[in-house]
Amino acid sequence: MSSPAPAASAAHGTGPVHPATARPSSALSGRVRVPGDKSVSHRALILGALARGETHITGLLEGEDVLNTAKACAALGARVERIGEGQWRVEGVGVGGFSAPAAPLDFGNSGTGVRLMMGAVAGNPIAATFDGDASLRKRPMRRVLDPLSAMGVEVLSAAEGGRLPLTLRGLADLSAFTYETPVPSAQVKSAVLLAGLAASGETVVREREATRDHTERMLTHFGAQVRVEPFGPHGRTITLTGRPALRGAPVVVPSDPSSAAFPLVAALLVPGSDIVITDMMMNPLRIGLVTTLMEMGARIDILAERTEGGEAVADLRVRHSHLKGVEVPPERAPAMIDEYPILAVAAAFADGPTAMRGLAELRVKESDRLAAVADGLAVCGIAHEVHGDDLIVAGGGAVRGGGPVATHMDHRIAMAFLVLGLASQEGVGIDDTTFIATSFPTFMPMMAGLGAVIR
Ligand code: S3P
């Protein structure tokens, strides 16, 4: 990269840990704007690198995951420049124009970064090695390697089980492919579509459950032809015409609803709270948590709904609420897949049980989130049960708190249990805050600004 960017830490799970404790807090108040959306930020950099000409990005999330993607784009030959806070300029090389990186590409903690970049590299006649931290090295990559191999990519080497570190050799002329994703995953869908840019003919992805559609939207924005049709009751078929002339385009990154989830639930749980979260992205495939919390009786007013940069955006007024337990349908999971840890925290304070079903994908996130949430709830004295892939939180009682909760290099486990501590009787300690910087580097000062006591 040609100008200084905030340093991405080399945290590989072996560095110093930074424990913290969230104390019972008095009413939260104020207006906050959480940082840019992580999914949109990764995609803006990657499509910028794959397009010809300049892409100007406003509101980029400057968290470690995204900074690692920026570095990877630069290592592949794109010019990536930080020109101000959240303002980045990318000069792309065109589809098929990546050059072989001189060193392994290190994606740190980020599954999105590594899986999308594997798809982006696929259509280039180069070899590249992909690696990440101890958490990312445990995560399944075959879900991406299988379809990419079918399109012609060669897997030159991989760790046991097809895991990182692994080396791929791409191909200038990939075979167009029709693929039904075996798991509901926007990362898998996106990897196949990005590879499909270098294929002649149409690449088709079918998903039985619709997942976040930022790749499809942004491909269209950069000039590709993408058709989206319904597939079954909850799914979609996405058809991309290969070899488009992708042109650099301006991208305005809206605020990340997955980050907003933490102050939002904190305000619902801490008595007397009344806050406003501004400019939150309201893409329907991302706001399953808001739907669920409203069903639970949350006082959330959706204000000033508008469209910004091609995405629905709104301001949310959130007030302390008495929640009741609900049944969360499994088909809602893709629209709130990253929000189950914080929903489990909210559920602990609700009257009656909350049943969250069909959570198999939670086991392969930055940690085994089903196990990590269950263990954390146990440490804090919260009754719950795990049956297969379902989590049922009993609810109904005052929450004692406790600690230390083990966060397993997982930012969302860390933030969820800190929020729990704010509304608990005795506070909650967590073993490490380090990984919060992957997605929400301003979490601590922003929460302190609302009145939260976390030390
Ligand atoms: C993401 C997709 C989801 C989500 C992740 C971001 C994306 O993962 O959990 O945080 O940006 O495409 P899966 O594709 O594995 O479901």
In short:
With 455 residues, the chain is an alpha/beta fold.
Account of the protein in words:
With 455 residues, this protein is of the alpha/beta class. The chain has 13 helices and 26 strands. It folds into two domains: 20-37 and 254-454, UDP-n-acetylglucosamine1-carboxyvinyl-transferase, Chain (Alpha-beta prism), CATH 3.65.10.10; 38-252, Enolpyruvate transferase domain (UDP-n-acetylglucosamine1-carboxyvinyl-transferase, Chain), CATH 3.65.10.10. Helices cover 29% and strands 27% of the residues. A hairpin with a 2-residue loop joins strand 4 and strand 5 (87-93). The longest helix has 13 residues, at 38-50. The protein is globular. The two termini are 35 Å apart. Mean pLDDT is 96; it is low at 1-11. Shikimate-3-phosphate (S3P) is lined by residues 39, 112, 185-187, 190, 212, 337-338, 361.
